[in-house]
Amino acid sequence: MPKVKRRMSSPEFDALRPWLTGRISEDRINAARAVLVDNAKHREVAAIHGWTRQAVNDAISAVWRAHERDLESKKTTANAGALLPPGWELVSLIAPSWMIPLFREAIARGDFPSTDAARQKDSTPTKSRLAHPTANPDTPTAATKTRKSKTAIPSS
After folding, report:
1. Which domains, ranges and CATH numbers included, belong to the chain?
2. Calpha distance 28→30 (Å, rounded)
3. Is residue 50 helix, strand or coil?
4. pTM as predicted
5. If DSSP states are collapsed to H, E and C, what string results for 58-112?
6. Contact, 54 vs 42, CB < 8 A?
7. Is 131 or 12 the better-scoring residue by pLDDT?
């Protein structure tokens, strides 16, 4: 089985650098970059740093392991929905900042429609109580207020 050459793009390496800094010396990071990104030969990099080719390979292996962990974590995140139990969904919410605390409060209260109503496919969505930051679920909205009709007062 032929050995696969390990290569990384510059943006991939740059994204990985914060995870390497402090764990691996800058010399080892730079040596690994020279081989993985800039396509330098092991012996050239070893000569620059005064190392053996094995020392260069060790630096590359350390960086490559970090790269593989990074790829695995991204794959896990991308497949998170596949790891959920049946009937569960992963939801990513994008909403106005003022609305996020309202969603969190509703979740904390367990303020959800009944499961039977939620499962009905033909149910139509109702107007949300989270429609406006000043919305109060205990006060009727303009849509639900009933108007008192004015009756004509007979003139005498």
Report:
1. 10-81 (1.10.10.2690), 84-119 (no CATH)
2. 5
3. coil
4. 0.50
5. HHHHHHHHHHHHHHHHHHHHHCHHHHCCCCCCCCCCCCCHHHHHHHHHHHHHCCC
6. no
7. 12
